[in-house]
Predict the structure.
Amino acid sequence: MLSMNRRKPEQNQLARAIYLDYHATTPCDTRVLNAMLPYFIEKFGNPSSSLHPCGQEAAEAVEKARMQISGIMGAMPEEIIFTAGATESNNLALQGFARAYRGKRNEIVTTPIEHKSVLNVCHELGYTIKLLPVDRTGLVDLESARKVITNRTLVVSVQAANNEIGTLQPIPQIVEMAHDRGAVVHCDAAQAVGKIPVNVRMWGIDLLSVSSHKLYGPKGVGALFINDGPHSFPLKPLLIGGGQEHNLRSGTLNVPGIVGFGEACAISSKELPKEASHISSLRDLFEENLYSQIDNMQINGAISNRLPGNSSLTFPRIEAEAMIVNMPQLILSTGSACASGAPEPSHVLLAIGLSREDAYSTIRVGLGRFTTRSEVEQASSIISEAVSSFSALN
Ligand code: PMP
């Protein structure tokens, strides 16, 4: 029988469920956890305690991680500042730069499909906010961008990959355009790093945000890349205190988290090409299975230019939330995790032109490192059955 109420899953039900929400977060890889464990008890030093070996050992571990994290994006270790995640990195980049800047530029340019940790911050800064138009697939329209970015633009903030529809943006072209007009470019790469090749030098980016828990590392740790290092941009810190991280991020460093983040980057750097093609072939199989069984399904985002594990699907006239409640074997989401539970439909889906009804009829599927072919086969048949039950009801 179809139910419309959210039920709390039993513990063993959760353990057996198929996890398809890799955009919200990823499980910590056991190799990452093993790298972290010694830094809770045996190697617990404070990396700022530079006078004794206990502190020095922790500082060495932090610097090794800084190298691993810079490596995955083609940066130098001294260009990496540790934060508590991409939300903080986005805040430090945008608030930090806009509040430190003293000059005549009074515009910030971004897109309507950014994460709320970019969009909501931009609206707090007292600058004029201009949005770059995106097309039906979420791709920034470069012709319009030429007119929107001007010599009054202080910073252009564009994500590398979208967390709902997976669309990848043409970052190097946007950077070139922005630099021609003297603007700085920030990129929220929380969904991109570890999933697609990211190279800050090839992209020419100035500031770039990363998050550990999106690439099989622990939660609560992230980084901000600053081109040419912390002193190359005026950035006003969000936290004032002991002056860690070149005064940009005071607070004792989260050593186990940073070590895990570093290991996660080292693993992803090595495995990315093989992993990305494996995951995208599973995603294609998943969508082909659904296509063959469901008449009226729409795939959102840029089909051949999206994250390997992303599948955003609209089933017109079926309420996505009710469908999800009726598929307790699957763990997936309707929109971004941060927005789930909110009464408003996803701002991303509305911005690419979906009606409110279609936005409410959309599920977000995210496949990842531990997804198996058998899970994909099961998930596609469970979804097909749910769609046909709901269609029969309609
Ligand atoms: N930006 C994007 C594109 C994201 O998907 C997320 C996570 N939902 C964030 C920023 C925020 O990252 P964190 O959870 O590390 O704060």
